[in-house]
Amino acid sequence: xxxxxxxxxxxxxxxxxxxxxxxxxxxxxxxxxxxxxxxxxxxxxxxxxxxxxxxxxxxxxxxxxxxxxxxxxxxxxxxxxxxxxxxxxxxxxxxxxxxxxxxxxxxxxxxxxxxxxxxxxxxxxxxxxxxxxxxxxxxxxxxxxxxxxxxxxxxxxxxxxxxxxxxxxxxxxxxxxxxxxxxxxxxxxxxxxxxxxxxxxxxxxxxxxxxxxxxxxxxxxxxxxxxxxxxxxxxxxxxxxxxxxxxxxxxxxxxxxxxxxxxxxxxxxxxxxxxxxxxxxxxxxxxxxxxxxxxxxxxxxxxxxxxxxxxxxxxxxxxxxxxxxxxxxxxx
Length: 332
What we know:
Shape: globular
Strand content: 5-15%
Radius of gyration: 22 Å
Structural class: alpha/beta
Strand order of the largest sheet: 2-1-3-6-7
Distance between the termini: 81 Å
Helix content: 25-40%
Order of helices and strands: HHEHEHEHHEEHEHHEHH
Largest sheet: 5 strands, parallel
């Protein structure tokens, strides 16, 4: 029996030891509630890093599928992605800046434009489509706006995707992935990049001047891609006008885009999708969050985005909500 146990232990050690190392030195330093960049990149952050948000009198209704309206003017519908799913995110501030009920549709597909086009019930007079910058052009290109008459379930399968594919992985699978990344095996690189900033723009302990962001924040598009996206935006607004809908498109600026000019000796490519698209498609209903957030970064405001996450902190979320509600009020 003793020989059997010793033999079993010898075979088990190569599995047990890496799991223990990963759990003790990596996983235990990724606190509960850490952001997606921390979880996906296996990057430890200080346990006490937190940015408080106020107590909200009203809350939006998130992850809706269908809503029956009795009054088109009593509600605002948002078709969005993960930025529209954040607890205490911009939708919570928006809900408290308007008397209207705010509903968010985020789980039909991974493409908010497709979600809007495929919605079969009555829509309110104000609709917002929110999309993160990194997939804005791709999302516009993949939906056929020329066939707007087809409101069937086939559209609902367009573009479903998720950044975080590790949420259901076991500790063994996490350990294996971590080891493969450490060994530099092809196809197992970290999805998270990092850089040093020339000034401290975060309050996270020991990482005040460190920037973490998704590799996919860096995209290159041709001018023809930009022009096609602008044409599809024009078609989208024309379609909304035909339904007597005041449509707004909120672009959630990528984290890298905001902070790229503050990176010391930046070797990453310049991200300029918004600089190319906005002049081509000049509409006041396009809400470019970069207009507000870049002013805050220039003023030295810290934690516009979470240090360990790709999303806005309550600081950035509130600023974008103010920008959004001001734009809506100006257009009414």
